[in-house]
Specification:
The protein is α/β, with parallel strands linked by helices and 317 residues long. It is 34% helix and 16% strand. It is globular. The N and C termini lie far apart (44 Å). One of its GO terms (molecular function) is RNA binding.
Amino acid sequence: MEHSEVQIRDIWMSNFRNEMARIDSRLGTYNMIAFDMEFPGFLRNTPREASEEARYRDLKFNVDRLKPIQLGLTVFNNEGRIGGSWQFNFNDFDVTNDLQVGASIQLLRSNGINLEKNRLEGVDSRLFAFRLKEILANHGVIKWVTFHGLYDLGYLLRMLTQTYTPDSVVEFAKKVGEVLGSVYDVKFMAKYCNGLMDGLLGLEKLSKILMVERVGAAHQSGSDSLLTARVFFKMVKVYGLVRQAFEGFLFGIGTMIENKVNVLVVFDSPSYYYPCFKSHNYAVPMGHGASQVNPWYHHQSVRVLPRPLFLPVLPVI
């Protein structure tokens, strides 16, 4: 999809079912999702020099008390081709009653977010989470891309698990690895690129340096997710980055997120099934070390299918 062809699709209850089906179909071809979350500010701000533990305590304090407003998802592939961009407007947040930071609400309003319309016509985040988990169960391991994504991940994790965030940063990283798997943070990657100010630049300034044009308005999640996807690909291309070297690292914390999404490995003939961790056991054809991982690897045709999220892992037989 060329730049001029990209349309950010606004999602309300009226078109929720059809657009989720569209995302499901696109993930069959596009295995990367850039995402961005809009929320009503920070009740507790974190000093730049704060420790990792203090930073996470503030995240937990904020995420567990505030409600999401908007989520942007942009799907793309390893070649940077965009498969679609969606902006989910949630009805959870009530601007008249819920906790919020006034300046943040004003910023969102000034950038075009209609909080009253969200409340009346938006999507319940619980319904969205249920349908997204169904969709993810239909596909192989997805790579998630964010920009300065600690809070984006916090809100998305809470949404998908429907529970409070974990008590520690170690438990948080573990849970993100189990639920989402492969995660990249563009701001962390920028630390290792000459001329990008050690990752201290915001997404807007970074995009201008890399000459990536924005579609839509800043501080709207669909536009931010699309810009994140394009900046990610442009950075990898321009600086020749090895993507795998940055997998699991977030800007602001040192604890790595390890990909532990459960999958089923399916062999065409005979059909054997066993659960494994995608990050440790790679489904590869014979001749590339497969027989050394498990003696059942003896066919050229190997498919990796996802297990339903949150099911217990069975022992390998």
